[in-house]
Design goal:
Layout: E1 5-12, H1 16-24, E2 34-35, E3 44-49, E4 53-63, E5 67-77, E6 90-98, E7 101-109, H2 118-139, H3 153-159
Helix pairs in contact: 1-2
Length: 164
């Protein structure tokens, strides 16, 4: 049976509330190239890495101190033939106590090994979750992608991003 999801688990030395609040601040651990609110239910935001990866997400579920679910509304990689990869997948963060620590389970629901981007995405998520997010939750210092620009005018228009 094919695995339909990518999952990564970390244990952190912080409480559930701190963990959830850190996760919701995706600029602190994923990328500084985010437009929009990442921490409000029903809000949509845009992520991009140069013009290599562009993604539109929406926070669709929040259970305080327990769970966050982001829906990928639209997505584009410049290195895949199938431009629908990631669309309608979900980024799920589940938080629970584990002894004196907090367990954070990240699942990219729908990220399947048949995706052309799978190996690149798996490696990137592992680095972000195991390294940057864990560090950000515990020390308030993550390793997000920095502001590098790279969005051209055509992409700004296509994705409905604000002009800067």
């Amino acid at each position: 049976m094919e695995n339909k999801n990518y999952t990564s688990t970390i244990l952190v030395d912080k409480d559930a509330s701190t963990s959830i609040n850190s996760i919701k601040n995706v600029r602190g651990w994923w990328s500084e190239e985010i437009e929009g609110n990442t921490d409000r239910l029903g809000e949509t935001f845009f992520y991009h890495y140069k013009d290599v990866h562009l993604c539109k997400l929406k926070l669709i579920e929040e259970i305080p101190d327990k769970k966050l679910v982001y829906l990928v509304i639209d997505n584009e990689f410049n290195f895949t033939k199938d431009k629908s990869e990631w669309i309608d997948t979900k980024l799920i963060f589940e938080v629970s106590p584990e002894g004196s620590k907090t367990k954070v389970i990240f699942t990219h629901d729908g990220l399947t090994s048949t995706y052309e981007c799978y190996n690149v995405c798996k490696d990137a998520w592992t680095s972000y979750i195991q390294g940057s997010l864990k560090s950000y939750i515990e020390t308030d210092k993550g390793r997000p992608n920095g502001k590098e620009g790279g969005l051209n005018a055509e992409l700004v228009k296509k994705w409905g991003l604000p002009d800067k």
